[in-house]
Amino acid sequence: MRGGQETVDTGRGPAGVAVTMPGGAAGAGVVAAPAALLVLGHGAGGSVDAPDLVAVHDAAVGAGLAVAMVTQPYRVAGRRAPAPAGHLDEAWLTVVDVLVQRLPGLPLIVGGRSSGARVACRTAAAAGAAGIVALAFPLHPPGKPERSRAEELSTGLPTLVVNGSADPFGVPGAAPGVEIVVLEGERHDLRKAPDTVGRAVAVWLRARGWAR
After folding, report:
1. Those residues with Cβ within 8 angstroms of residue 102's Cβ, 6 or more apart along the chain or in another chain
2. pLDDT surpassing 80 at residue 28
3. pTM, whole model, 2 decimals?
């Protein structure tokens, strides 16, 4: 079960945050010490209830991570049109800083889907992240492959990209430190088999010692 929603004041308005801690032994009602902290952001016009984000949340909590789902201030305010990139990054970093102070000493993994993946990549170094999870990374606007955003994935940090083979926003290619998982037949929403997305993330987290 996902944690309750709260708000965090940022310089760009209140952001929404829901934190879920990993459980202990089945039926014991005990909260286990997290193996790491995973912070996830949503797509431009979407929410943290997107099927792939929910699947990753559930898989990561099951693997022993504390997971925070972050709703950007423009969505909290009821707007669908995203804020400028700089505003998104500023609000995100404020929330991540609060979470890191609340759960100190844990490896920090940042990520999200689409626009949220871009925010996580752009701010990962400043946030002090150990790794990045990028779902449905929008390599370029639909029909405009010349406007590549591939450089945003070049962070020097271990990065997992999960994209659909039929995504009109494109599929990133392999790069140093970047692992690409391509799901056949999936489009940008990654909603055909979201559990597959969750499993891919959990496997990647365990391989790096960030999960149980």
Report:
1. 19
2. no
3. 0.95
Residue whose pair of structure tokens reads 């929403």 in the numeric block: 189
User: What sign results for the dihedral spanned by CA atoms 35, 161, 201, 42?
Assistant: positive
Alpha-carbon gap, residue 188 to 191, rounded angstroms:
8
CA dihedral of residues 196, 156, 169, 71 (deg, nearest 10) = 70
32-73: pLDDT as tens digits? 799 999 999 999 999 999 999 999 999 999 999 999 999 999
Which one, of 84, 55, 83, lies nearest residue 193 by Cα? 55
| pLDDT computed for residue 31 by the predictor | 63
Average pLDDT of 119-139?
98
How far apart CA 8 and CA 74 sit, in angstroms, is: 13
Q: How many residues can be counted in the chain?
A: 212
- How far apart are alpha carbons 44 and 72 in whole angstroms? 9
Torsion, CA 31, CA 33, CA 90, CA 80, rounded to 10: -40
For residues 62 and 50, the answer to whether their CB atoms sit within 8 Å is no
Quote the CA–CA distance of 212 and 210 in Å, as a whole number.
7
d(CA 154, CA 173): 11
The structure tokens listed for 83 are 């804020």
Q: Confirm if 198 and 59 have CB atoms less than 8 A apart.
A: yes
Which runs of consecutive H residues, i.e. helices, occur in the chain? 51-62, 73-76, 85-102, 115-127, 194-207
> In this structure, is the dihedral angle defined by the CA atoms of residues 123, 109, 179 and 167, taken in order, positive or negative?
negative
CA distance 146 to 142: 10
